[in-house]
Here is the input.
Amino acid sequence: MLADKSCSPISALISITSFLLLLAAVGCRGERDKTSEQTAPTFEIQRYPIEVVATTGMVADLVRNVGGAHVEVRQLLSSGTDPHLYKPTRDDVQAILAADIVFYSGLMLEGKMGDTLERTSRRKPVKAVTEEIDESLLLEPENAQGHPDPHVWNDVKTWSQGVDIVAQALGEIDPEHDSEYQANAASYRKQLDTLHEYGVNSLATVPEANRILVTSHDAFNYFGRAYGLEVLGVQGLSTESEAGLQRINELVDLLVQNSIQAVFVESSVPSKNIEALVNGAASRGHTVRIGGELFSDAMGPADAYEGTYIGMMDHNFTRVAAALGGEVPSRGMQGKLSDE
Here is the structure.
């Protein structure tokens, strides 16, 4: 049925007033995490396992460790998928709508999913695992226009603060098993403490002159701060940004002047920019090799050790330390790393 084109003055006034109220509500939201600041519906779970949707592998793995047998987690972004560029499919939206609770990383990492997550938060719990991380621990690069760097998981100690967010959220919708979630969270935090210590000790073996990490994009600033490396990315924080010829030339100069022996590609980012650095250095008479592939915005294959958060970070710590001249076990902290 077509709408009546003759609209009464009262109806028009109501429509205009409603629109202005909605506009004001949107305008008053904070910049750090719009979705998490909305008041989500309060309810308790009525079925098991709890159906959880998580965006990235790092978030999904965190939820699996805390939720244990009581959760079934659907991970939207597969191995090697770039969350900066990912747009939710129709199946993704249906999965989100069918889930009991949704977890995402936050800090605008999943930028193209923002609208979907925001709308969903009006109907069910939608939680950013970074939402309560101490703001003093967040990095805000000068070129990020006031937005914190979202790649928090590359600092294990800071990322581990998200464990409590997950445990609390699951306990709120499933109070019957809250004590189990808390126990799982405590156990997982201990594992992360061990992982962080391995990272500190491994990178400490890299000679001072070699402590420069060059990667495809600025995903490793937290990694550098936590583990004592200077980090340089060809692209900016988001892989949407383009690397200009000037930036490539600047980094080639740095490689040559500092006699840097290794640079790194990333599993979720095309390798062309790093290859340009290698070729540029070669044209200047300096040999630079690709020290390995790092997991930056996505974990490894789902059926591999590197497809867990601990395996992902173990891989990065071990490969970076070894390529830059440090001393580490070839198969990593637990002897589980895949052979390269």
The chain has a mean pLDDT of 86. The first helix runs from residue 9 to 27. The two ends are 64 Å apart (CA to CA). The CA atoms of residues 103 and 231 lie 29 Å apart.
